[in-house]
Amino acid sequence: MIRKIIVIFLVIVMLLSLGACGIRKKIDEKISEKITEGVVNKITGGEANIDIDNGEVTIKGDDGEEVTFGSNEWPKGKAVDLLPEPKEGKIISVMNSDNVCIVILEEVKEKVYKEYIEELKDKGFEKDVYEYADELGMSYFGSLDENTHVQALYTIEDEMLNISIEINE
Known about the structure:
It is built from three helices and nine strands. The protein has helices at residues 2-19, 25-44, 110-122; strands at 48-53, 56-61, 66-69, 90-97, 100-106, 127-133, 137-143, 148-155, 160-167. Helix content is 30%, strand content 36%. Strands 1-2-3-4-5-9-8-7-6 form a nine-stranded antiparallel sheet, sandwiched between helices. It is an alpha+beta fold. The protein is globular, with a radius of gyration of 17 Å.
């Protein structure tokens, strides 16, 4: 499921770049929606409804599942409600669904990353913990329960933080 979502995300980003410029932006968005729906339907073998609004893409599947890409604000609802919001950093990408959320931030200081990991632990993500650090970056993996897992990856040089949560049902 995660791989499908990532493939769909990459296809959408590629297709949106084709229709994001120019004076006919609304027309281009509608064309991009239809093209993207066709590609996503081929990938998933189902019927998807694509809505593009101000750079944010929402895909609604025929099973009722909804995935949103492209926001630059902390998402609300769904899996992300289990995560604390980082105190600093600029959100550059979001992918949010009922069971998976990925948020990428830049301009995050190492101290903020370390404080965020402590907040994750305070929220209960302390089972099956794996932590790693070297001169390039740091990572944290922890579980809330057997179905809910979080991962935070931090790159020191770029000051980027990638936060992901997955809920397996």
